[in-house]
Amino acid sequence: MWGGKMLQKVTKMFPIKIFLKKIKTLQHSQVAVCHTLQTKTNSNFMEHVLMPIAIIGSFGTSVYFFTKVITDYILKKKMIDKGFVNEESQSIFRAHTAENKFSSLKWGLIAFFGGISLIAMDYLDVRPDSTLPYGLFAVSLSLGFLIYYFLVKRDIK
User: Fold this and answer.
1) Which of 120, 122, 117, 124 is nearest to 142 (CA)?
2) CA-CA distance, 44 to 49, in Å (whole number)?
3) Which of 23, 29, 48, 111 has its CA 20 to 30 A from that of 5?
């Protein structure tokens, strides 16, 4: 994509040496324009606290669901082998599927409103230590949950 002619045109339009020199002076200056000190503290917090929590949490959730699926399968298999295949025993396993009738709607709305908030945060100009992005994300996810609640409530009636 970046052939020799394209690269020559870009370098003629925009002198890269001057740009790199300006970036180096901005990165290591103590002026208020540069936020590298604040970013480093947030980065250390994220690396040392949030990353292990996310890794351990996702691993634990994966193990839980894997174990649940396997044990349900083993239980169903043993019930069939023993001859417990009446309506009452089958209703135990059907109850789980009946509750999640609107599950895809819920997760679709949550993902949609979460994405909308991330797009909005991209256009906002905030300080790196501001809590506004977290609040915007939480409010938009809550809005998705509320819309889901009212849609399901209306459909049940």
Assistant:
1) 117
2) 8
3) 23
